[in-house]
Design a protein that fits this description.
Layout: H1 4-17, E1 27-32, E2 35-38, E3 54-57, H2 73-82, E4 88-92, H3 95-101, E5 124-125, H4 133-142, E6 148-151, E7 155-160, H5 163-180
Parallel strand pairs: 5-6
Antiparallel strand pairs: 1-2, 1-4, 2-3, 4-7, 6-7
Helix pairs in contact: 2-4, 3-5
C-alpha cells in the first residue's frame, strides 16, 4: 500500500460513487502500525483530505485535538483485535443489504457466491445502538468464521487483506442482497 491515508480516502469516495453509502455514511479503515486509520465522523467523503483521516490505537486512543474518528470506530477496533487476518474494513449502508438487515435475517445459500463471505450463509448481527460495545460484540459473533455480515437495522461490513478486496466483498454482499430480495 503506497499511502494508507490516500487509500482510505479513495475507497471512502468509492462508497459514494458506487452507491454503497450516501454522503458521509458508512466508513473505511485499514490496519496501520499499532492501530488503524479510519474515516472521520461527519465529514463528506467527497471533500476528505489526508489530515482528516484519524489514527486510532488498538487500545482505542486517538488525538481528540484532530479529527474525531467515525462513531463506529469501536467495531473496527474489535475486528482488528480479534481477527488477525483483517487488514482492511469496509462498512456500508448499502440499500439492499440494509433492507434485509431490517428483518434481522441472514442471507441463506441461495447462490453459490454467498460463499465469498466465508461460509454457507451471510449472517446478520443482532441490532444494537450504533457506536456501542454491544454492537461490536454482536458483529464479532456474526463474523464467526466469516469475513462479511449484515448488521441488524444498519447495513453491512466486510473485511479482507486489503481495501480492494474488502471493497469488492462489500459490493458482492450488496449484489447478493439485491438478488436475494
Amino acid at each position: 500500500m503506497k499511502n494508507p491515508k490516500n487509500e482510505v480516502i479513495k475507497y471512502a469516495k468509492m462508497l459514494n460513487f458506487k452507491k454503497l453509502s450516501a454522503l458521509r455514511s458508512g466508513n473505511i479503515s485499514v490496519r496501520f502500525k499499532s492501530g488503524f486509520l479510519i474515516t472521520p465522523s461527519g465529514a463528506k467523503y467527497s471533500s476528505l483530505k489526508n489530515k482528516d483521516i484519524v489514527f486510532v490505537s488498538l487500545k482505542g486512543k486517538f488525538d481528540k485535538k484532530k479529527s474525531i474518528p467515525s462513531s463506529e470506530w469501536r467495531f473496527h477496533q474489535d475486528i482488528y483485535k480479534n481477527k488477525v487476518e483483517a487488514k482492511a474494513i469496509v462498512h456500508a449502508h448499502s440499500n439492499c443489504a440494509t433492507a434485509i438487515s431490517t428483518h434481522g435475517k441472514r442471507i441463506p445459500a441461495f447462490h453459490y457466491m454467498v460463499a465469498m463471505a466465508g461460509g454457507h450463509d451471510i449472517k446478520c448481527a443482532k441490532y444494537a445502538t450504533y457506536g456501542t460495545r454491544e454492537l461490536s460484540k454482536n458483529i464479532l459473533k456474526a463474523l464467526n468464521k466469516r469475513n462479511a455480515c449484515l448488521i441488524g437495522n444498519h447495513g453491512q461490513i466486510a473485511f479482507s487483506e486489503n481495501l480492494a478486496k474488502a471493497f469488492e466483498l462489500a459490493e458482492e454482499v450488496e449484489n447478493l442482497s439485491n438478488q436475494y430480495i
